[in-house]
């Protein structure tokens, strides 16, 4: 059971250093990204975009799991979202959708936009890869500037196994990750271990689970010792080169939505929840 009224995203600020942690907080659902969780994440990412104090952001999940990607249950059966409630995200393609907008169209677009926002934050974002990262969760990790993984980490893109196209994240992943391994990963939907995730380029360092916090601490201290303006400008330089265009993002989203809503997609998601397809 999910605890009622628990914040879906926790924000923790260090008192002695300009460091903030954003923590997905739905451990019972392996931190799957629902509309409300994404709204909380976006609000914090928008706030950080103009914050000049925080220099390092840790992105991680509660309960020893990073994030299981899009909330498949909500995306397949959740209530539509009134267009007015989407204005705050300032995403033109959502504002052009007929009102109300099916949540199956909203959630994936917000996942893409969160990836872009992480990529363009002025702070250096350090992803903490523990447990599992699937689909949009792995997409978010791919946008982090650095990723420290514990050796129990697994990553996967299960879209093909579920029966829909792995289109949503393609414009991000194909720019960031080793092509042959990525291709194998999306085609087989087989999860990979931390070592392979490093070969793929999804994570940077891999350490034993009991050394993860020390590794994070070392990375944070190293970043804080660098010139903040030079760091921020360096990040911007690389982000510009590896970010897809708005048209590519929109096109990927449309292919995803069509495929997710197809019979094969509906059946696969129902199968994941052990249900008969509707
Ligand atoms: N959406 C909704 N609910 C989810 C999701 C998800 N993506 N992932 C896990 N859950 C729920 C499960 O339904 C289960 O709920 P229940 O307790 O009410 O039955 C709970 O989280 C725990 O899940 P388990 O599968 O029991 O956890 P386990 O630790 O064994 O496995 C793992 C974790 C590997 C992440 C597994 O849950 C999984 O494969 N999830 C699906 C991941 C996925 O396919 N994501 C891609 C989405 S597509 C995209 O993001 C573009």
Would you give an account of this structure?
The structure is a single chain. With 278 residues, the protein is of the alpha/beta class. The chain has helices at residues 35-49, 72-77, 92-95, 103-120, 136-143, 159-162, 170-176, 179-188, 194-200, 212-224, 228-242, 246-260, 263-272, and strands at 9-13, 19-24, 56-61, 124-129, 132-134, 146-150, 154-156, 192-193, 205-207. It starts with 8 loop residues before the first strand and ends in a 6-residue tail after the last helix. The mean pLDDT is 96. The chain binds acetyl coenzyme *A.
In spatial order, strands of the major sheet run 1-2-3-4-6-9
Q: Helical region count?
A: 13
Strand content: 5-15%
What overall geometry do the principal axes of the alpha carbons give?
Answer: globular
Give the integer mean of the pLDDT values.
96
Largest sheet: 6 strands, mixed
Bound molecules: acetyl coenzyme *A
Separation of termini?
24 Å
CATH homology superfamily: 2-enoyl-CoA Hydratase, Chain A, domain 1
| Total separate domains | 1
CATH class: Alpha Beta
- CATH A-level architecture: Alpha-Beta Complex
Computed over alpha carbons, the radius of gyration is 18 Å
CATH topology: 2-enoyl-CoA Hydratase, Chain A, domain 1
Q: What structural class do helix, strand and pairing data support?
A: alpha/beta
Order of helices and strands: EEHEHHHEEHEEHHHEHEHHHH
Please bin the fraction of helical residues. 40-55%
Q: Report low-confidence residues grouped into runs of 5 or more.
A: none
Number of strands: 9
């Amino acid at each position: 059971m999910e605890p009622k009224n628990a914040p879906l995203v926790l924000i923790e600020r260090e008192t002695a250093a300009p460091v903030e942690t954003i923590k997905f907080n739905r451990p019972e659902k392996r931190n799957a990204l629902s509309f409300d969780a994404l709204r909380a994440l976006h609000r914090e990412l928008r706030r950080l975009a103009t914050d000049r104090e925080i220099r390092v952001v840790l992105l991680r999940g509660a309960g020893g799991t990073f994030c299981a990607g899009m909330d498949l249950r909500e995306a397949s059966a959740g209530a539509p979202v009134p267009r007015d409630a989407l204005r705050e995200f300032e995403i033109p393609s959502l504002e052009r959708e007929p009102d109300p907008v099916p949540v199956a169209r909203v959630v994936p677009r917000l996942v893409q936009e969160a990836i872009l926002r992480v990529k363009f934050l002025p702070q250096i974002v350090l992803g903490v890869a523990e447990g599992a990262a699937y689909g949009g969760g792995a997409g978010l990790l791919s946008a982090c500037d650095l990723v420290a993984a514990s050796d129990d980490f697994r990553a996967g893109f299960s879209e093909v196994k579920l029966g829909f196209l792995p289109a949503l994240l393609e414009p991000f992943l194909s720019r960031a990750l080793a092509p042959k391994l990525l291709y194998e990963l999306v085609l087989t939907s087989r999860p990979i271990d931390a070592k392979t995730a490093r070969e793929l380029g999804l994570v940077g360092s891999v350490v034993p689970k009991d050394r993860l916090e020390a590794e994070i601490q070392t990375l944070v201290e190293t970043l804080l010792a660098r010139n903040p303006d030079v760091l921020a400008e360096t990040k911007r330089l690389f982000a510009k080169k590896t970010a897809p265009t708005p048209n590519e993002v929109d096109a990927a989203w449309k292919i995803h939505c069509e495929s997710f809503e197809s019979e094969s997609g509906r059946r696969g998601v129902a199968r994941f929840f052990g249900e008969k397809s509707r």
